[in-house]
Amino acid sequence: MAAAWPELEAAARERRRELALPGAAVAERVAAGGGRLPAALLALPLLQSLELSGCAALRELGPGLAAALPALHTLVLRGNALGPAGLGAGLGGPLPALRLLDLSGNGLEALPAALGGAAEPAGAPEGAPAFPQLRSLNLSGNRLRELGPGLARSAPQLQALLLSGNRLRALPGGLLPPAAGPGGPFPLLSRLEAADNELAELGADIAALPALKSLDVANNRLQELPAALADCPRLKEANFRGNQLKDKRLEKMVNGCQTKAILEYLRAGGRGKGKAEGAREEARKKKREKQQQKDGGDREQDELEEASKLLVKVLHVSENAAPLVVKASPGVKDVRPFIVCCVLKGVNLQPGNALKRFLSTQTKLHEDICEKRTAATIATHDLQSIKGPLTYDVQPPDELKIVPLGRKEIKAKDLLRQLQLEAEEQRKQKKRQNVSGLHKYLQLLDGKDNYPCLVDAEGIVISFPPITNSEKTKIRKDTRDLFLEVTSDTSLQICKDVMDTLILKIAELNRFTMESKEDLGSDNESDALCGPVNLNPSQSIQPTNFPLVVEQVRVVDTDGNLKVLYPSKTDLTTVSSLLTVIR
């Protein structure tokens, strides 16, 4: 009899987009299933993120994974016992949406066909890449001795390639195909890590990676560095420590992490070069100057665009001494099942109309991307007024009590009745059918026996989506740290997309506030709305280039199993053209 997989049954029932299976908890069932993933996993076509790490029993994915999960954009299979054959069956076809693939710590001695191994992936038309959207590939901690040119064809959009802790002897080695189209191989590869290998050669063709910004080849067997490194136009960070460099002057620069000095030294030809080498260096210099003239404008434009981007730093749960957790009760799945939360620190709402713009932006998002709250609802809270952990729950209308914004404590059923009476009065006064404010959203709760709510550790309801927040956690002008919440009865991905946009808009507002240099005074409307303002002159004003900090928040079920973590590795990618995320 096949082992039961309640995690997969729950994921199918709740139409989840994300699934994380802890390796230690499922190892016995994986072993009982022949060391492969359960077939029930193939019945989750909506799945976008899958993680199963630390399971020594997992030797193969099983056939048909790629075909069954076409929407998958994140696949983390770290620290298992997967081999190329075991991977090949599951990755035997294209994954058109995959953006992150983590196969680190599996003891791989060769890559599967889908990643440019011995044969082209089955099911893919000739010439079509198996992973056209793949941005990050982690192969660290395996036993790879070489990489073939097929990887460049399989993942042409790769931006980060992590190869540390393998047995590679040359880099790039066979990684670069002799002909890779007009853009060259890996035209977007900006991060290449190959520390702790057996590298004895760093080839001059490393300069064929036009977007390379970060290179790590520490703790290898390199005795010299190629002068061609100086031809990498965007190389900013390089780690060559722990090698056996013959040039002691160069080694001193390496140990001092002086990337710029290293490149200038290599560009100048280093020490002890003969006439022939000097002539070759002069030829390279002329070639560089010609290329720089050609690409100078593009590079300047890239730098301008990068400098103009907004900055956000992600604080991971593992780095947070007191991370906030939201526990979702089973009852929400029949009412409003999806919730995404995070903490945002460092906002400045004190100057001028900053708070008014903040509230106006939230209203516009409700009208636009939230589709008048029918797709999703945003709630923003003053973090200092919240006591965690929080519980996302449901309560009957005659039991749910809240102190709504600008009102006294009231039961949910009485609040809705009050709002309905106000809406009728509004229609009579304005002599039209349309109403404004909260009255527009009353129909969203029609037919519900229970109402969703977010409750703090003191049992106080701080949010009643999609209707209102609590007066207790209201945003004020002296608020610096926010707790952000997005809920939906439609999908988890909509929650994430809305949260991405919300963070971007807040970052834009924060920059505008800093750059406009408004007075700390405020308009009457904001004062009336938000009460007294703390105008402490010693309070520091955030510099314009200081990143906001986004703290990850976990949503778990009543047993503590992870349901969603935001922001995950792939979140905030929808706004990456305008936002630089420091992870």
TrEMBL record:
Location of region: Disordered: 272-303
Transmembrane segments: none
Domain B3/B4 tRNA-binding residues, every copy: 335-511
UniProt biased composition (Basic and acidic residues): 274-299
Coiled coil spans: 409-436
The keyword NADP is annotated on this UniProt entry: no
Pfam families: LRR_8
InterPro entries, sorted: B3/B4_tRNA-bd (IPR005146), Leu-rich_rpt (IPR001611), Leu-rich_rpt_typical-subtyp (IPR003591), LRR_dom_sf (IPR032675), Phe-tRNA-ligase_IIc_bsu (IPR045060), Phe-tRNA_synthase-like_B3/B4 (IPR020825)
Gene3D superfamilies, sorted: Phenylalanyl-trna Synthetase, Chain B, domain 3, Ribonuclease Inhibitor
Keywords: Coiled coil, Leucine-rich repeat, Repeat
Position of the signal peptide: none
Stored PANTHER family: LEUCINE-RICH REPEAT-CONTAINING PROTEIN 47 (PTHR10947:SF3), PHENYLALANYL-TRNA SYNTHETASE BETA CHAIN AND LEUCINE-RICH REPEAT-CONTAINING PROTEIN 47 (PTHR10947)
Protein name in the entry: Leucine-rich repeat-containing protein 47
